[in-house]
Design brief:
CATH superfamily: LigB-like
Shape: globular
Order of helices and strands: EHHEEEEHEHEHEHHHHEE
CATH class: Alpha Beta
Radius of gyration: 17 Å
Strand content: 25-35%
CATH architecture: 3-Layer(aba) Sandwich
């Protein structure tokens, strides 16, 4: 029987990739780089053979979709921020078998899901940026699931439960990555570049920090009660689908774990970012 060996909430902001490039921004995201590398180290230490990534930059409008290609190989440039991310070469094994099991379990739960193997269906940067640090030897399979931008928190809770059922039906050891921000309110274009290292709203920052306190103290039921409102008021990225999937997979309000902060909270072009490792229930 398969198992979840890691569950983490991670950042993927393009400024992490910018941080690797020569120039005035070199090194600005070093703590995030180190945290993502540490997630990869822990995943290997725990025996992970597949990264299952809830990718908030693969935004779907109808249903839930999985990239079930046998191999992910291409070069990537961001349509959103091509001056931040371009010429990113990647080559990872996929996980078609687990993708099909996930599809079956989502459908069994009454929702619509599809697995795709289209030649031109590449990976998005919410998967690619973390994989650069976590999977440099390409030794762990990569399976992205998109986030439906019109989904509800409760619907994504059920998706998380379906992911857990699918993993248990497999022979995989899975590291689940909720790849998305905390608050996600972008500033107006005219001032966006002045907030490269800031959160756009002091209210959003305070709520984000309160959420991190809840996670660190194990006040998960309290957090989940406010999650739908948090998503709306703090402009959740991808409907905060990745976060709801994460806690659905962990057991929702019954989850008693405490999140371990792996890098300091930081702002990036108005959004709140973090890397947190959640212990997986036995």
């Amino acid at each position: 029987m398969g198992e979840i060996v890691m569950a983490a909430k991670i950042t993927h902001v393009p400024s992490i990739w910018l941080s690797l490039q020569p120039g005035k921004h070199h090194g600005i995201r070093r703590p995030a780089e180190k945290a993502l590398t540490e997630v990869g180290r822990r995943a290997r230490e725990r025996g992970a053979d597949t990264f299952l990534v809830a990718d908030t930059h693969w935004m779907n409008s109808i249903g839930f979709h999985l990239n079930g290609r046998e191999r992910h190989r291409a070069s990537y440039a961001s349509h959103e921020l091509p001056h931040f991310i371009h010429d990113l070469e990647y080559d990872y094994a996929g996980d078609a078998e687990l993708a099909e099991l996930v599809r079956q379990e989502i459908v069994a739960g009454g929702q619509k899901a599809l697995v795709h193997t289209y030649r031109d269906l590449g990976l998005e940067y919410a998967t690619l940026v973390p994989m650069y640090f976590m999977n440099q030897d390409s030794g762990i399979r990569v399976l992205p699931i998109g986030c439906n931008i019109y989904s509800t928190i409760d619907e994504n809770r059920r998706i998380g439960e379906a992911l857990l059922r699918a993993v248990r039906r497999s022979d995989r050891k899975v590291a689940f990555l909720a790849s998305g921000s905390l608050s996600h309110a972008f500033p107006p274009n005219e001032i966006a570049e002045t907030l490269l290292n800031e959160v756009s709203s002091e209210i959003n920052k305070k709520v984000d920090l309160a959420v991190l306190d809840m996670w660190a103290q194990g006040r998960i039921a309290e957090f989940l009660a406010m999650l739908p409102d948090y998503n709306v008021r703090c402009t959740g990225e991808g409907a905060m689908a990745d976060t709801a999937m994460l806690f659905g997979l962990l057991g929702w309000a019954d989850y008693a774990g405490r999140g371990e902060l792996l890098c300091p909270y930081f702002g990036s072009t108005g959004t709140g970012q973090v890397v947190v490792d959640f212990p997986v229930p036995a």
